[in-house]
Automatic annotation (TrEMBL):
GO cellular component terms given for this protein: cytosol
Hydantoinase/oxoprolinase N-terminal domain mapped to chain residues: 3-158
Protein name listed in UniProt: Hydantoinase/oxoprolinase family protein
Family matches, as InterPro entries: ATPase_NBD (IPR043129), Hydant_A_N (IPR008040), Hydantoinase_A (IPR002821), Oxoprolinase-like (IPR045079)
Residue span, Hydantoinase A/oxoprolinase domain: 179-463
Transmembrane regions: none
PANTHER family per the UniProt record, alphabetical: 5-OXOPROLINASE, 5-OXOPROLINASE RELATED
GO molecular function: 5-oxoprolinase (ATP-hydrolyzing) activity
Length: 570
């Protein structure tokens, strides 16, 4: 049996999966200040009466990192940056930055040494400024981390209490600004995320649940919870990822759909192309910075079932209706004090939630302010909320259509096309999705268990893993971006370095990915790994080729665990 738990801004949802089908569900209110309590209440609700030893896996979808960043509650981090030549450091706009001399070239060869006196002066300044943590990132440090390691040594000597994060250990991918942002956010969130994980593990131990525990990542894959502490920012956007995988699980295979997850506070948007969720090629965007975090191409908008409905006066004196962007609590039908789209849906008979009489009372009050009938006002509220979401989908298409995967999908369609389905997930989907789909000229799909689709997505998402291999035969070294280590090619058993072919590099990458998968405890999925990108370049000195550079990217893609039987028929 499997358990999936998704924490949303309004509710925390949970499901129990038995023999590939939904066995029980639960929905409890999310208490932002007591997030763990919400998680455990949902867990207890679906596992009541189930012997703990029968549970095979527990997966959480968490908003901890997303909320820390969105609410500005992350810890301050001193950024020690070695950007090298070629760009004005001020153009990066990173906060609390300290720039040092020194540089490596793109192959990891030193072209400017560090200034030890400058480093010592900077470390003293960071200590005097009260920073408790620092991130050290060198441009091309993933190709040669010696500068980062030297600065780390001086920190250990002068300021041993400072918590350090090294860029080459967080991300080995190219693009210096994204590596800076990823390292900064990792440092800023690691400790609080670790506290959250420790609380979860303690609570599960108290309940004698010893099943493997996973966290859902932004790319729709799961990560063993003990490993997630090393990569806390991988868990951002796990809510939208859960709804995307949930939609994938609840609809027929190989379909193309816009996923609209309507919660109480926000609506999350995602895209599935012929059964494959669309990934953001530039990585997740957090706090205004692009990162190296692999994530679905998603967007959250501040419109939900519990968004506050207000009547305002325009500049011309005309009364207009607004929806959101804030939420002041639950809908009136659930004991709240503000009119919401949920109340309008109740009045129109599109849903049946809470006390319909309280919804009617709220809509009548709004109708009186607006000068319209109760029915007209309810229709207007639903139409307004649906139009806001439809407009956001159309805006998002402008971004989706720029993604390489979308362009390839269009070519395969042999015509310019848009997805035909709009799949509704979440508590507000049942009432709104038909109106949204109508405005998008698409077919509305609200599958069974749509209200807990996120929790289903978490429960049955399989692990994902990425690996980026770089080989430099002239320097006789290789590195795996995700490992942060430079290794001699002599340890690779590839024979003559200068006669390596691309096929051999790809086979070596597959071998390394399998080893990495074993370390993560997910080796059963290693055979499903696929090559995402594979390139080779000659290194030429004078008139002769003196070496070759290989870059191979592989992944175990997002998908569903074997045995899931809950798809609807086409």
């Amino acid at each position: 049996m499997l358990i999936g738990i998704d924490v949303g801004g309004t509710t925390t949802d949970a499901v129990l999966i038995r023999n590939g089908e939904v066995c029980s569900t639960a929905k409890v209110s999310t208490e932002p200040e007591r997030l763990l309590n919400s998680l455990l209440e949902a867990l207890d609700a679906v596992s009541r009466g189930i012997p703990p030893e029968q549970l095979e896996r527990v997966v959480f979808s968490t908003t901890v990192i997303t909320n820390l960043i969105a609410e500005g509650k992350t810890d301050r981090v001193a950024l020690v940056l070695i950007p090298g030549p070629g760009i004005n450091p001020e153009s990066y706009s990173f906060p609390d930055s300290f720039y040092l001399k020194g540089a490596m070239d793109y192959r990891g060869r030193e072209i400017q040494p560090l200034d030890e006196a400058e480093i010592r002066k900077t470390v003293e300044l960071i200590r005097e400024s009260g920073f408790a943590r620092a991130a050290i990132i060198s441009k091309f440090g993933q190709r040669n981390p010696s500068h980062e390691l030297m600065i780390e040594e001086i920190f250990r000597e002068i300021y041993p209490g400072c918590k350090l994060e090294l860029g080459h250990k967080v991300s080995g991918k190219l693009n210096f600004p994204r590596r800076v942002a990823t390292t900064m956010l990792t440092s800023a969130t690691r400790e609080r995320y670790q506290e959250f994980v420790e609380k979860i593990m303690k609570a599960l131990e108290e309940r004698r649940i010893r099943a493997p525990v996973f966290i859902l990542k932004a790319d729709g894959g799961t990560l063993p919870v003990e490993k997630s502490i090393e990569f806390p920012v991988e868990t951002i956007f796990s809510g939208p990822a859960a709804s995307t995988i949930g939609a994938l699980a609840l609809t027929p295979q190989n379909q193309t759909s816009v996923v609209v997850d309507i919660g109480g506070t926000t609506t999350d948007l995602a895209l599935i192309l012929s059964g494959n969720p669309l990934l953001a090629s530039k990585g997740a965007k957090l706090g205004g910075f692009l990162t190296h975090v692999r994530a679905f191409a998603v967007r959250s908008i501040a419109v939900g079932g519990d968004s506050v409905v207000r009547v305002k006066e325009s500049d011309t004196g005309k009364k207009i209706l607004t929806v959101g962007p804030d939420r002041a609590g639950p809908a009136c039908c659930m004991g709240g004090e503000e009119t919401t789209p949920t109340d309008a849906l109740n009045v129109l008979g599109l849903i049946n939630v809470g006390n319909p009489e309280l919804s009617s009372k709220a809509i009548k009050a709004t109708a009186s302010d607006l000068g319209k009938s109760e029915a007209e006002t309810a229709v207007l509220i639903v139409d307004k909320a649906a139009q806001m979401i439809a407009d956001a989908v159309n805006e998002m298409f402008l971004e989706w259509e720029q993604e390489p995967a979308y362009r390839i999908w269009e070519v395969l369609q042999e015509k310019k096309a848009r997805p035909e389905n709009v799949v509704g997930i979440g508590g507000g989907a049942k009432g709104l999705i038909a109106e949204i789909a109508k405005k998008l000229y698409a077919k509305p799909v609200t599958p069974e268990y749509a209200e807990v689709g996120n929790a289903i997505g978490a429960a049955i998402a399989r692990p994902t893993l990425t690996m980026n291999l770089h080989i430099d035969t002239e320097q006789q070294i290789y590195s795996v971006a995700e490992e942060g280590e430079i290794v001699s090619l002599s340890a690779a058993n590839l024979g003559n370095f200068n006669k390596i072919h691309l096929e051999e590099a790809e086979a070596f990458a597959a071998k390394l990915l399998r080893k990495r998968a074993e370390n993560f405890g997910i080796s059963e999925y290693a055979d499903e790994a696929e090559i995402v990108n594979s390139e080779v370049f000659n290194v030429v000195n004078g008139w002769y080729t003196t070496g070759r550079l290989f870059d191979v990217s592989m992944q175990i893609p997002a998908g569903l665990i074997p045995g899931w039987k809950g798809r609807e028929k086409a």
